[in-house]
Amino acid sequence: MGDTRCYIGEADVVADRLRYQQRDKDFWDRVVVITSKDTNLTKSHSRYLESRLISLATQAGRVALENGTAPPVPALPEADASDMDCWRARSSSRRGTGSGGPTAPSRLTPPIEPNTNDS
Fold first, then answer.
1. Nearest to 81 by CA among 32, 35, 47
2. What is residue 48's predicted lDDT score, i.e. its pLDDT?
3. pLDDT digits (tens, 9 = 90+) for 45-101
4. From the centroid of its chain, how far is CA 92?
5. Residue 25 CB contacts under 8 Å (≥ 6 apart), including other chains
6. DSSP string, the chain
7. Pseudo-torsion of CA 32, 35, 40, 45, nearest 10°?
8. pLDDT in the model for residue 1
9. Residue 94: count of CB within 10 angstroms of its CB
10. 3-46: per-residue pLDDT in tens?
11. CA 54 distance to own-chain centroid
12. Under 8 Å CB-to-CB from 30, ≥6 apart: which residues?
């Protein structure tokens, strides 16, 4: 495992979480924030992504995770879980890591938009 330390977490109020992390975790110099422009990314989706990213980072073994826990993957409808896994895979390949997540600061939104046509 490399010398890189990593913390993966989710929050309702990102500014509050970042202030807390800055105070208690002095090792970080980059942050990746995943947001949604609407309510299509729910708390369950966020927790699903958090759990999957922690699991993938653990499996890859390229960073020392600073997470105290590894939350279980929350139950999502199959279609939602598939959308989140697709988004995660696309974000990894877009960032050039292919192993579970972005490596540089970015603001990402899921590429899959709901079909609003009633045809």
1. 47
2. 92
3. 989 999 999 999 999 888 899 888 888 888 999 999 998 988 888 876 555 444 444
4. 11
5. 7, 66
6. --S-EE-----SSHHHHHHHHHHH-TT-----EE--SSTTS-HHHHHHHHHHHHHHHHHHT-SEE--S--PPPPP--HHHHHHHHHHHHHHHHHHT--SSS--S--EE--S--------
7. 30
8. 60
9. 12
10. 888 889 888 888 888 888 888 877 888 888 888 777 778 889 98
11. 8
12. 103, 104, 105
Q: Which residues contact 34 (CB under 8 A, 6 or more apart)?
A: 41, 46, 49, 107, 108, 109
Written in H, E and C, the secondary structure of 31-63 is CCEECCCCCCCCHHHHHHHHHHHHHHHHHHCCC
Exposure of 67 by Cβ count < 10 A (0-12 exposed, 13-18 middle, 19+ buried)?
middle
For the chain, give every domain's residue range.
5-108
Question: Is the per-residue pLDDT at 2 higher than 90?
Answer: no
Q: Which structure tokens are listed for 116?
A: 């609003």
Structure tokens at 8: 């993966």
